[in-house]
């Protein structure tokens, strides 16, 4: 779309005119020239609307606009320099010219600067006069239009984070079902399924639906999602695959290391890979084979889904499995359109508008993106004629579908105001598919000058927020993400919308790497640099018009010459070096007079140069996760225009430099470290920083000894702070009575504004809380409270009167014995003298306590005894209750009408469990751990909570089960006596919704409820009962069964496993009496468990044989410590899907036992093998040398073995070798044999004393020369060699 090469000229001109008017008051020496500049600009502005419309058809007009834009950029630079000089003189000269501070060009100002500026403005005017004269030949129509208003109103957002929200998707159920079926079907080796369709048709959305489908999730061991876009860089794709698996950033750039890392993660595993938005068929054809080669180590049943607009790409990767995504049916199309067009704040729904809307929908051709975008556009149009203009637009005559969609999107763009257009086009600097933070984007817009100047009525950030919301409202932004308080955090841009932004940006924006530097860079204003470890192309020295420079992909800017060319970028406004390889910035950065945004987050930077203090225009400085940062620059106080200082706890810097109180424009200061040095910044310097907003956390308040400084901080006037953190970091030895009074006074002085939403406090040494916490006067908007390690407090405020409070988290308050009760029924209110308190108390008794509370966490409160019922009506919305380490708690509330999750972690009394659970009826999750006196739970607890999904009882030694409702006894040891029984009866209990049940460490437990038809996962560990007695229920839905430490178990119930055909995981551990033929069915044949993938048998003293013939899907087998076992499991060699086996030879009968013969097609998938021996065994089974796919071999406990066999060198696929607990092992195979292991990358030796001595690297001992070539060698946990 070359016709869109010039954009935003009107907005740039408006900005320069505004600046010119402002500078007239500053630059008396050139006042006439600046006034003349203003007049010329206004004359040109009169014809801009017509010029921008005609540039589409007229190349000459487009060139004229290009020249105009360049001149206005130069004008902006000149006027910005005047403003910069104003700031410089204000700071460096001070108040000597207090009454003349804005008059730079008076006789007291530098004559050279005045002379230089006068000439530059004069030259600029001459250029503009020439451009102005040239406009006459175009005969533009003159108009006097004001900028289009910002579109406001409520918006409907589709909220997703990393996954799609299925309820938001219209009309793709059938497509999803068909694609899921295709993915799960048995097909070719590494089946590739291309999803082909127009841009905006919903290919990515469909792939997201399938990727997050429950069946798909359970079918694959590993799932990866990579957005490829138009740059198919194999190295980047590999890195993002690794990051998709590990969920951590992968910094390594070596292709060999990447291949090894990915191979380890995919080895013999079944994976699903989605390559989203693959559309460069030329690159794809060249590099597809390279990518495919890295995936061959995985299971052959793995699947790859490729979404693409290109039919050629589909033919390359999967001609037999192409899924053609069709357009949406008309009924679904109108649903999408009307939700946006007629939402709140939009036009009145009339029959005429609906009829026109349906005609517009027909023209969209069933493309969801076009429907959403047009729906958002029509919401801003109230008149019927405006709707008819869209219906009759000539764009519908375009025959090419992709071009038509782009033009539909451009309708929304054309409807934007001039500043909004500029803001939208700037989003082209972000990579496709990336998440864009809202605050970050607004700071970038601000730095580029798109938001004008702040005024008393509106801050630039507020205007930026309106712009962001408008772009969301117009559906140009999507996948909006919100924080826990409901505020928007960020968004994404659809690929086609991103394409539109790039096409409009034209020559102004460029992505540059080492392969793309041939173009003219002199007119580029926004540059994205993407080059690894190579020298920066010299052509970049000519890019002296750059206003934004953004480095991506961990570029090594320290060694590639970038810092040398930095002074050339004289017009730079934005410099983003986050994640770059960088330990220091050059002094020359201080020459960037126009710089407003600097980001060095996630770098190795140790300090900022002193010259940073000369960046008087700097608005945003981001220093997040700079772990080597030692100090902040003293010149920070000179940055009088700084609005956002983003730091965190990373690095060893301990305090802010003195003078930060001069930064009165500061809005973001998330971290404030209170230093212990006199030279540091005191909290008193916050006194006049009343524009602060967002989060503010104080650290190291133990260094604050002067309470007057805390009072001067004046937090109560900082109405924009919504999250306040207060932390003292004293050791227990440093906590003295002296600090009690200081901490109490400091906390009293730190009263926040009533807008506060989150209060976070740690290490408070006071014994009582301040009045603003006690009476809640400053907390009426509070949503969340966190108190940690406030160990000297003896009471907790009653927060029940706070109307919006959603979460309470109390952790480690050792002295609290009692809290709750009525509002006036606790010591904390004894000294409250506020007017109207008595009336408030009486009123509170008639209201609901904790009306909005959703979760409570009480942890490490060893002396808490009573939690009293606040009011007769309490906790109507509470869903989560977590209690940990409250052993003395006896009295609790009993009414929680909405509670879903009840979690008792270690050291909670059984009486508290009984009390809290007495009247519950809405539970879905119940977890009890470490209640030493709990003997039973009431049967009615299970009967009332019919939606209970998960039940876990752990480490409750006296717990027997669920007592009948007719039983009179209490369920605690104190009532029943140590040896009493609660006469457990479970026959009447029905748990239709229960899917997960764990009974662990409860030796007294005897049986589970009879009717649990939906139970899928069952774990019974450490019970004295017989399994047959425990499992009286007729279980038929199990997929997971773990039985451990059942000393009475002699055999498994015959029908337990045969009824559960979908069992996936079976683990039987430490059941010494288990004996006989393993798991026969009624016919005496081997049991058939076709779905079982993991099987563990460990610690059997009597078991003589195991039959695996019926377990055809097994992928993992573990057989250990079975002393009577006479042979390896029958059928082991027939497990075609077996990937990992751990096998032990531990009985005399197995001394001469061999490994099953290895022949095709057996053991084809086995890649990991662990062999556990005993002192009886002197050698390894020779058959394993024929395992062609073996990559990981572990040898453990072969104490009698002296030398590893020579044939070990035949396992050419071996990559990792682990040797452990072989006391007498001395010799590795010969050097020649070890060298045949060409794939071996890792050797680890543990607890093999003789072999360790002989593999000493320093002394070049007997065995070292055999292994010296192996990249990674560890001995007893120490890394001896690392060649990677």
TrEMBL record:
<dbReference type="GO" id="GO:0051707">
    <property type="term" value="P:response to other organism"/>
</dbReference>
<dbReference type="InterPro" id="IPR041118">
    <property type="entry name" value="Rx_N"/>
</dbReference>
<dbReference type="InterPro" id="IPR032675">
    <property type="entry name" value="LRR_dom_sf"/>
</dbReference>
<dbReference type="Pfam" id="PF23559">
    <property type="entry name" value="WHD_DRP"/>
</dbReference>
<protein>
    <submittedName>
        <fullName>Uncharacterized protein</fullName>
    </submittedName>
</protein>
<keyword id="KW-0547">Nucleotide-binding</keyword>
<dbReference type="InterPro" id="IPR056789">
    <property type="entry name" value="LRR_R13L1-DRL21"/>
</dbReference>
<dbReference type="GO" id="GO:0043531">
    <property type="term" value="F:ADP binding"/>
</dbReference>
<dbReference type="InterPro" id="IPR058922">
    <property type="entry name" value="WHD_DRP"/>
</dbReference>
<dbReference type="Pfam" id="PF00931">
    <property type="entry name" value="NB-ARC"/>
</dbReference>
<feature type="domain" description="R13L1/DRL21-like LRR repeat region">
    <location>
        <begin position="1184"/>
        <end position="1248"/>
    </location>
</feature>
<dbReference type="InterPro" id="IPR042197">
    <property type="entry name" value="Apaf_helical"/>
</dbReference>
<feature type="domain" description="Disease resistance N-terminal">
    <location>
        <begin position="12"/>
        <end position="96"/>
    </location>
</feature>
<keyword id="KW-0433">Leucine-rich repeat</keyword>
<dbReference type="GO" id="GO:0005524">
    <property type="term" value="F:ATP binding"/>
</dbReference>
<dbReference type="InterPro" id="IPR036388">
    <property type="entry name" value="WH-like_DNA-bd_sf"/>
</dbReference>
<keyword id="KW-0611">Plant defense</keyword>
<dbReference type="Pfam" id="PF25019">
    <property type="entry name" value="LRR_R13L1-DRL21"/>
</dbReference>
<dbReference type="InterPro" id="IPR027417">
    <property type="entry name" value="P-loop_NTPase"/>
</dbReference>
<dbReference type="InterPro" id="IPR038005">
    <property type="entry name" value="RX-like_CC"/>
</dbReference>
<feature type="domain" description="NB-ARC">
    <location>
        <begin position="176"/>
        <end position="343"/>
    </location>
</feature>
<dbReference type="Pfam" id="PF18052">
    <property type="entry name" value="Rx_N"/>
</dbReference>
<dbReference type="InterPro" id="IPR002182">
    <property type="entry name" value="NB-ARC"/>
</dbReference>
<dbReference type="Pfam" id="PF23598">
    <property type="entry name" value="LRR_14"/>
</dbReference>
<feature type="domain" description="Disease resistance protein winged helix">
    <location>
        <begin position="429"/>
        <end position="501"/>
    </location>
</feature>
<feature type="domain" description="Disease resistance R13L4/SHOC-2-like LRR">
    <location>
        <begin position="560"/>
        <end position="859"/>
    </location>
</feature>
<keyword id="KW-0677">Repeat</keyword>
<keyword id="KW-0067">ATP-binding</keyword>
<dbReference type="GO" id="GO:0006952">
    <property type="term" value="P:defense response"/>
</dbReference>
<dbReference type="InterPro" id="IPR055414">
    <property type="entry name" value="LRR_R13L4/SHOC2-like"/>
</dbReference>
């Amino acid at each position: 779309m070359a016709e869109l090469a010039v954009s935003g000229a009107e907005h740039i001109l408006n900005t320069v005119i505004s600046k010119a008017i402002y500078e007239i008051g500053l630059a008396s020496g050139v006042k006439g020239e600046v006034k003349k500049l203003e007049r010329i600009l206004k004359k040109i502005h009169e014809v801009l609307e017509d010029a921008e419309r005609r540039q589409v058809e007229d190349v000459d007009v487009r060139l004229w606009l290009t020249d105009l834009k360049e001149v206005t950029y130069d004008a902006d630079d000149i006027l910005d320099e005047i403003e910069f000089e104003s700031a410089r003189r204000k700071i460096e000269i001070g108040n000597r010219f207090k009454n003349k501070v804005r008059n730079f060009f008076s006789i007291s100002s530098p004559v050279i600067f005045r002379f230089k500026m006068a000439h530059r403005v004069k030259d600029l005017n001459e250029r503009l006069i020439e451009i102005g004269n040239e406009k006459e030949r175009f005969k533009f129509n003159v108009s006097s239009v004001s900028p289009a208003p910002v579109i406001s109103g409520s918006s409907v957002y589709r909220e997703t984070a990393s996954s799609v929200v299925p309820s938001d998707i219209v009309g793709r159920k059938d497509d999803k079902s068909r694609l899921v079926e295709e993915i799960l079907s048995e097909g070719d080796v590494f089946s590739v399924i291309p999803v082909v369709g127009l841009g905006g048709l919903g290919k990515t959305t469909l792939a997201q639906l399938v990727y997050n489908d429950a069946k798909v999730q359970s079918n694959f061991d590993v799932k990866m999602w990579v957005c490829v876009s138009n740059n198919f860089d194999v190295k980047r794709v590999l890195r993002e695959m690794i990051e998709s698996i590990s969920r951590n950033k992968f910094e390594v750039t070596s292709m060999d290391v990447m291949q090894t890392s990915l191979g380890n993660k995919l080895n013999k595993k079944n994976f699903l890979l989605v390559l989203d938005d693959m559309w460069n068929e030329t690159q794809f054809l060249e590099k597809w084979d390279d990518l495919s080669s890295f995936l061959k180590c995985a299971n052959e049943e793995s699947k790859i889904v490729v979404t693409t607009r290109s039919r050629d790409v589909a033919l390359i990767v999967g001609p037999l499995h192409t899924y053609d995504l069709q357009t949406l049916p008309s009924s679904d199309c109108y649903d999408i359109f009307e939700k946006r067009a007629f939402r709140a704040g939009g036009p009145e729904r009339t029959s005429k508008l609906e009829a026109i809307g349906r005609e517009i929908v027909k023209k969209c051709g069933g493309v969801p993106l076009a429907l959403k975008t047009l729906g958002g556009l029509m919401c801003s149009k109230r008149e019927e004629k405006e709707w008819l203009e869209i219906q009759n637009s000539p764009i519908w005559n375009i025959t090419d579908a992709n071009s038509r969609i782009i033009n539909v999107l451009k309708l929304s763009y054309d409807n934007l105001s001039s500043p909004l257009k500029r803001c939208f086009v700037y989003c082209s600097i972000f990579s496709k598919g990336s998440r864009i933070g809202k605050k970050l984007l607004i700071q970038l817009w601000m730095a580029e000058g798109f938001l004008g100047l702040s005024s008393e009525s509106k801050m630039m950030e507020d205007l930026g927020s309106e712009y962001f919301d408008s772009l969301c409202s117009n559906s140009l932004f999507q996948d909006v993400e919100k924080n826990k308080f409901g505020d928007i955090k960020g968004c994404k841009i659809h690929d086609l919308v991103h394409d539109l932004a790039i096409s409009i940006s034209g020559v102004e924006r460029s992505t540059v790497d080492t392969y793309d530097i041939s173009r003219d860079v002199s007119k580029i204003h926004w540059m994205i640099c993407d080059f690894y470890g190579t020298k920066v192309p010299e052509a970049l020295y000519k890019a002296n018009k750059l206003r934004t420079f953004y480095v991506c992909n961990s570029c090594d800017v320290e060694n590639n010459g970038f810092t040398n060319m930095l002074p050339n970028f004289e017009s730079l406004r934005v410099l983003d070096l986050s994640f770059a390889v960088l330990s220091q910035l050059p002094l020359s950065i201080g020459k960037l007079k126009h710089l407003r945004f600097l980001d060095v987050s996630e770098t190795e930077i140790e300090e900022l140069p002193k010259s940073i203090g000369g960046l008087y225009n700097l608005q945003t400085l981001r220093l997040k996760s700079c772990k080597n940062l030692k100090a902040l620059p003293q010149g920070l106080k000179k940055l009088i225009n700084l609005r956002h200082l983003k730091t965190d706890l990373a690095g060893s810097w301990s305090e802010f430099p003195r003078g930060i109180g001069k930064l009165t424009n500061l809005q973001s200061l998330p971290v404030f470290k209170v230093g212990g040095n006199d030279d540091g910044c005191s909290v008193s310097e916050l006194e006049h920083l009343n524009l602060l907003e967002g989060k503010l956390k104080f650290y190291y308040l133990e260094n604050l000894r002067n309470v007057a400084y805390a009072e001067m901080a004046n937090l109560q006037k900082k109405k924009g702070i919504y999250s306040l953190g207060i932390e003292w970091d004293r050791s227990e030895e440093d906590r003295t009575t002296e600090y009690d009074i200081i901490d109490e006074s400091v906390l009293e002085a730190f009263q926040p504004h009533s807008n506060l939403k989150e209060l976070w406090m740690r290490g408070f040494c006071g014994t009582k809380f301040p009045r603003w916490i006690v009476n809640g006067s400053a907390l009426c908007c509070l949503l969340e409270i966190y108190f940690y390690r406030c160990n000297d407090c003896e009471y907790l405020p009653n927060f029940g009167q706070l109307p919006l409070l959603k979460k309470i988290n109390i952790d480690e308050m050792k002295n609290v014995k009692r809290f709750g009760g009525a509002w006036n029924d606790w010591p904390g209110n004894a000294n409250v003298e506020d007017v109207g308190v008595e009336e408030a108390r009486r009123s509170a008794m008639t209201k609901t306590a904790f009306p909005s509370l959703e979760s409570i966490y009480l942890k490490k409160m060893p002396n808490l005894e009573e939690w009293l019922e606040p009011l007769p009506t309490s906790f109507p919305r509470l869903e989560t209750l977590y209690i940990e380490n409250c052993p003395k708690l006896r009295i609790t509330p009993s009414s929680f009408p909405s509670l879903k999750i009840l979690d008792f972690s270690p050291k909670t009394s059984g009486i508290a469990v009984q009390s809290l659970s007495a009247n519950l009826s809405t539970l879905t999750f119940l977890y009890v751990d470490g209640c030493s006196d709990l003997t039973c739970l009431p049967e009615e607890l299970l009967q009332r909570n019919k939606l209970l999904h998960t039940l876990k009882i752990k480490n409750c030694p006296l717990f027997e089960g669920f007592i009948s409702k007719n039983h009179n006894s209490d369920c605690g040891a104190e009532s029943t006596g140590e040896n009493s029984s609660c006469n457990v009866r479970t026959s009447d209990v029905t748990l239709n919704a229960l899917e997960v049940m764990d009974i662990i460490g409860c030796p007294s437990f005897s049986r589970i409820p009879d009717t649990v038809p939906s139970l899928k996962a069952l774990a019974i560990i450490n019970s004295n009962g017989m399994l047959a007695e425990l499992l009286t229920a007729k279980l038929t839905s199990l997929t997971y069964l773990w039985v451990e430490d059942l000393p009475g178990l002699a055999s498994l119930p015959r029908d337990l496993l045969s009824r559960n055909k979908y069992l996936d995981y079976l683990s039987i551990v430490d059941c010494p009496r288990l004996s006989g033929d393993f798991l026969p069915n009624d016919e005496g044949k081997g049991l058939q468990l076709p779905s079982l993938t993991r099987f563990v048998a460990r610690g059997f003293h009597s078991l003589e044989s195991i039959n695996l013939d019926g377990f055809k899907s097994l992928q993992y087998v573990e057989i250990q410590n079975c002393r009577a076992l006479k042979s390896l499991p029958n059928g082991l060699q027939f497990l075609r899907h077996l990937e990992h086996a751990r096998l032990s030879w531990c009985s005399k009968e197995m001394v001469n036992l061999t490994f099953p013969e290895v022949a095709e097609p057996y053991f084809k998938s086995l890649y990991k093998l662990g062999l556990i021996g005993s002192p009886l065994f002197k050698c390894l089974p020779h058959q394993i040398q024929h395992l062609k796919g073996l990559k990981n071999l572990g040898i453990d406990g072969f104490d009698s073995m002296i030398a590893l066999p020579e044939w070990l060198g035949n396992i050419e696929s071996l990559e990792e070798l682990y040797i452990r607990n072989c006391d007498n092992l001395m010799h590795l195979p010969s050097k020649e044999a070890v060298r045949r292991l060409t794939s071996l990358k890792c050797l680890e030796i543990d607890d093999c004393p003789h072999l360790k001595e002989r593999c000493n690297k320093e002394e070049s001992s007997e065995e070292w020369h055999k292994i010296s070539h192996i990249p990674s060698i560890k001995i007893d946990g120490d890394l001896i060699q690392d060649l990677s």
